[in-house]
Amino acid sequence: MAFPSAPERILQRLDWQVVRRLDGLLQGDYRSLFHGTGLDFAALREYQFGDDVRAIDWNVTARLDTPYVREYHEERDVTAWFLLDLSPSVDFGTVGGEREKRTVLVDFAATMARLLTRRGNRVGTMVFAGREIRTIPAGSGRVHVLRMIEDLLDQPHLDAAPVTDLAPLLDAANKRIRRRSLVVLVSDFIGVSGWDRSLELLNRRHELLAVRLVDPRELELPDVGPLMMADSETGEQLYVDTSDAAFRRRFRAAAEARETALTAAFRRARVEAATLSTEDDLVRAIVRMATARRKRRRLPA
Q: 247 and 241 in contact (C-beta within 8 Å)?
């Protein structure tokens, strides 16, 4: 008797524990997650109060000195691309000692791919690990999702590398994804700055869902005594005493400064990023994303 492979076990678990629950909660209305304005360009028209500002065509607006928005035909079939960041910092996780950000990334991407492909849509993957970008062309069906999961499981946990720069991944996506698609970017966005311009361009061309991975211990340290901490991006190690209240305050201040910088970068890119924590229930997190996107687009509930 053949035992299920690791990708098969993951997909079976997600089908039972996540996808079935989402079917009941979202009642099959995945437009709020995937698209609500359609994906095929139809026409330009002047901006009206209440329009989604992300639909503004900034080039036309600049030429005519009047805001114009792009309209799209509703389309049944969607091509989605998953841009997945597997840089060293994604291997961090403290919830229960077992749930790394990488685990959350795999579960989320596999769930979204499963929701899409079982309705006949196609998904492709671009995996960013260190300086390498691995691409799986768009395909459909359960077997394709299993291939995607297997590829993610096969990606090694990287040793410390040069600090992550997401711009090459976003630039590659801008060059390779020609037809307007749903693009799902999943990253913890830990690394060098300067990727917001590339993200803005991707957001102009495609339907973008940006998901930021977080772990609660990246924002605030508990008092657990002396620790040896390592920067997962550079490998630099530092001995710290977490019982020192002043050190915990400095750590929190540094985390808040990073949050402020990220918020500003997303604002410059005109992107509202959803947050996915290692302590989140995946079903509730996806429903939260769907609700937020539906409100922004003013789709009927």
A: yes
Alpha-carbon torsion angle 109, 261, 93, 17, nearest 10: -30
The model carries a pTM of: 0.80
CB atoms within 10 A of CB 75: 13
Contact (Cβ atoms closer than 8 angstroms) between residue 32 and residue 129: no
Residue 236: other Cβ atoms inside 10 A = 10
* Per-residue pLDDT tens digits for 109-167: 999 999 989 878 899 999 998 778 999 999 999 999 999 999 999 887 766 656 788 99
> Which helix (H) or strand (E) is 124 found in, with range?
strand 122-129
Cβ–Cβ under 8 Å, residues 11 and 148? no
Task: Classify residue 78 as left (phi > 0), alpha (psi -120 to 50) or beta.
Answer: beta
Alpha helices in 55-100 (DSSP H): 58-64
165-181 as b/e: b if 16+ CB within 10 A: bbbebbbbbbeebeebb
Q: What length is written for the chain?
A: 301
Q: What domains can you pick out in the chain, each with its CATH number?
A: 6-39+75-215+272-297 (3.40.50.410)
DSSP letter (8 states) at residue 56: B
How does pLDDT run across 42-66, given as a tens digit for each residue? 567 787 776 667 678 877 788 778 8
Which contiguous run of DSSP H or E holds residue 296? Answer: helix 282-297
The answer to whether 286 and 111 are in contact (CB under 8 A) is yes
Residue with token string 């290692």? 278
Q: What are phi and psi of 234, to 5 degrees?
A: -110, -15
